[in-house]
Request: fold
Amino acid sequence: MGKTHICRRRLWFMAVLAAFSIAGGIGLCRIQPSGAKAGLIQFDVVSDLYLTSGLHANIVVFARYWVCQEYYAISVVWTEPHGRGRDMRSRVVFSDETGFRMDSERHSEWVPLNTTYPKPVGERPPFRWGGGFYGGEDARFAEAQALARRVYAEDLESIEKPKPGAGGVFEVNLPARPGGAARKVARLKVQARDDRVESMELFDAQQRSLIATRYQYEPGEGVPRLATLTAELPVRPEKLPGGGNVTITSRDRQWTHAVPDIDYVSHKGGRTCTVTYKDVSVGDRVLRLPVQVQVRRSDNKQLLRVARLMNFHRVDLDKEGVWKAAKEFGGLGSEYAAWVRLADTYLDHTPDLGPLRVDPNDLAFVRGLIAKYPVWERQSPPPPPERPQTERGAPDLDPEVAMQQMERRHEAEKQERAQRQEQIRRWREEVARMPRPERREIEPNDARVIRQLAAHYNRVLLPLTPEERTELRTKGGEVQRVIPESQREIQEFRDKLHAILQYHRHAPLPEDRTPEPDDHDLGLIRQLREHFEPLTQQQDRGLGGQLKALHALTRLDLMLKDYDAFERRVTRYLQMLRDAGLNEMYMVGGRRHIESLVQAGQYEKANRLLVSWADRSAAANEADGIYRFCGASEGGKTSPWAAVQVLDRFLRKPGLSPVQRYEGLALRAIALDKIDRWLADSSTEENESLVAQTRWILKIATRAEIAQRAESAIRQAVLAWEALGEARWTEAKPYSASSMPAQARNMMEAPDATRLQETSAQLDQIVRRRTVQPGPAPRSRQGGRPRTTR
Amino acid sequence: MGRKRKTQRRVLIVPNCPILLSRPPKEKDMNHKQAWIIRTGLWTALLCVLLCLSVGAVLAGSGIPPGWRRVFDAPTPEEKATVMRHLNYDSYLTDISLEVREVDDFLLTPALLVQEVVSERVILTYPEE
Reply:
């Protein structure tokens, strides 16, 4: 009995010892930075996105988030600038352990965006959107990948606690998570000191680096307080599906060949992501929360996006409550639906030509109608001479032979190009001598019937219902546009009807005119103004919700042609953007509203707004932001006059470097050259927007004055380029990669051109064009690279 | 004795040469052989340099584009075909779509970052995007 008692004591003693030793061995179990349970948190995020590949645009997304350990929800309430297909389509997202749910009221027919994807979602498939419209539903894979890469405090338990004040580098092989959850990270390398991680690198099973993170802490004693987290993300391999088996049909034969996958990369240049953490009071606790996320390209430090997190507070909601709150916050509501109907009717009017008044199957009638309006049929250029098959083979394995092959091919291609140019020149002369039918006015009734028939044949040729299209889209397929042989004639008729409308003149039909609101709709517009007005000041809607309401009001003002109210609201809208520090969006948003006033012929108001907008834009923005706006499609290309006003003011600023000054002058020259060409080009009259812009500009300056300003601006820009010295052939070298054929770019491994180099290339083209084609205005007489005009 | 020391000193001129260390030759033979080795070594080195320069000139200096060089470097016909296919690929629209995906995925980043802070025993890192 006594022995048993001693044994039990021994066992107890051993257990206590074991517990102490485990506690001691855990070492880094309270390591920082690590999370701690804190309930459900609600916050707002303003994300400033700078698109660089092709689109060159600044987009700001306003969203509200609800986050706790078990689930989260995101509700996008607004996107600036709104419309033109650039608004974030993933409106509401909810994710918990069971599934990833998406909802989009605005795109309710788009099934992938209104779906719950059960978890686990599986591996991210090969990227199939190259050349297509990216589907936001793939975001679920991003979440899965992030969770598969999380590191837990348990993962660091095997690390021996370093002595106080001493640090160490530790490598840990990670086991699978309990429950068999997918885990991407297989090994981690940690540098730790005094219970805090200083840096950490994660590797996958193939020992490839996934991410390298550095942590910086606030100085001081006690629990380490994280100040910034800097993550380096490497360039990633990306598999692009090659297209499987493709069947090619030529005139006399058909063959199938397999197009294999392509190994590509994403995150070109790598990414450096910096997260700033601060103490935030949330309920009765102070949490160390991320307040800003900034992402740059690692190689050239170009800013790609910034997210600012704000308005943190704790909320007491269950899952269903969070989903409802997210839907309500980003949702459109019945008033918004009424507003959309009014905007479609009175601002974005689509004419309804009524039922078809002729029999579309009466082919004799259709042929007669087509014969009544003969068009000049475009002539196809003669086919190029076929090259011998032997010259197309793969290069020889012997580099010397390959070089000779290349030189031979190069010489042959040169000769072929010269022959082809001569052939095309002769063909063009022949075409120019061909008689053309007279352009005439299409009778109004005929114009209506032609437009109705063309629309009807379009529907016949593409008979898919919206549901069928959605189904195809959901399954990842594409809408096939193969026209059966039996409908070839209908296709031909449709094309000819379109050609008639393009070749001959036709006056707008009464149905084309935007209708005036009737009494009922006038009353509805006034009711909606009363509804949206208070929403512009509701703090709980966040800045995005307020801007959304303000946007609705400006559109209602335009419906009523109440331009005084419109001007007041635009001023308020711009003030809100300035107060929020969205200085680049201030430029984009202001320009759009100035254009609206110009379209409406409100030149006095447009000029007043232009002056204050240009002054503040130039004062509040850095060179990078100004030049991004003036060079991108949002600024300089669509509204060069606005770009000129901003640049005129910005270039007066002291302290600009020679390169900055040159870039500003070059962009100004490009914008003025564009206006000069608009004013000289008679085809501008076919574009309503351009007509409005040119009328507005001509109210301020004469055509001769613009031509003179353009000439002077080009001369100034060229002088500034010459004054750059060495930098004119490096930083400011006229170089454009976008205009090179893809094959040549790949073969030469040509680097991407910088914005400044692309600008120099544009200026170079202008100088060349003006040298070759001297116009009535005095032109630069220099050729080749930009040179001083004397 | 004196002759032997002289021979040993000369052997040290070309160290680590197995022939000289194993069998010290007569003074006359030694001079001839040593000169031959030095001369041959120098000529070989010069030849190597010239050869390297000429090969380099063919591959790089005379204008073989770097993309094409990758075709030559590929060891098998299949890999050559893969490189050629990549050289013919136009990535302009793919780059735009990839950028839009990156931006779209970025929408989740604030949620995942805050979720790490409010989750028990999760080490703070940066989520994928």
